[in-house]
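EI: anyone free to look at a 177-residue chain?
SC: sure, send it
EI:
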Amino acid sequence: MTDAYKVFQDAESRKAYDVWDSYLAASAGEDPKVRETLRSMLESAREDGEYTWVQTKLAEMYDEARESGLTWAPTPPRPCEADRQVRDYARDLLRGSLPLRVLDRLDSIGLSLRVLNRRFDDTLGLDRATREDAVYITARAESALDFAHAEAAERELERLKALARRCGVLDRGRSAA
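SC: here you go
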């Protein structure tokens, strides 16, 4: 099985490399000496490749750009934004490393989650706590899917189905996909 946490770490580094590569490739008219220092720091981070070292070097790059007053240099993304971007990169990396049968299973769980969530959205009269529970369980399932952990995602999907049955979201003749 693919080490999904390692994939996320790789994705975080790759995302940062892409951001800095794009900035350094652009002709922004900013201090060429500082930009060369940043380019050297980026190459140093790439050469080592160890996650902690890479993160340290990237933090130093953001600091260097800020201290030098580079107007157009990247700024560290806010945590939520960074996680969203890394998840996109990680999904792409995971999809390239997982067998087709695993991808199909993950896609099937994801589809079931979307269908069931749509039913929660379309059901009138649900109280706030129930809707919050549905959102929470869905987030846990999606997190498990991000890490390609089908068993955990299926457990959360079953919890969501149970909640749907208790609240009348699932009709007796229908079940979630």
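EI: Helices lie at 4-25, 32-48, 51-67, 79-95, 100-122, 128-146, 150-167.
SC: 👍
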